[in-house]
UniProtKB/TrEMBL annotation:
Signal sequence extent: none
Gene3D superfamilies noted in UniProt: Transferase(Phosphotransferase) domain 1
Pfam families (UniProt xref): PK_Tyr_Ser-Thr (PF07714)
Molecular function GO labels: protein kinase activity
Record protein name field: Serine-threonine/tyrosine-protein kinase catalytic domain-containing protein
Residue ranges annotated for the Serine-threonine/tyrosine-protein kinase catalytic domain, each copy included: 1-62
Amino acid sequence: MWEILHGIPTPFKQNTEFQSQVISGLRPHIPEGTTSRYIDLMRRCWDGNPGNRPSAENIYDNFIEWQDDENILLELSETKKKYQERIY
């Protein structure tokens, strides 16, 4: 979810250290200004209990619902602009 939002890999090293960090509950920083709908879905995906995480189908359904909602699209667009301003 973090990589989908930002279009780049997470800032963690991709090795056993990364796996240990995730198991310990460490998650990537969520930038200020990220739409609350996206944050809620992303945090559900990060739930420590796999049974509480949404299925791929549920995530897909959310994305489909969002693509037809002008308010959500505007929020997501603003989030992307704010993030790109920070990294460039």
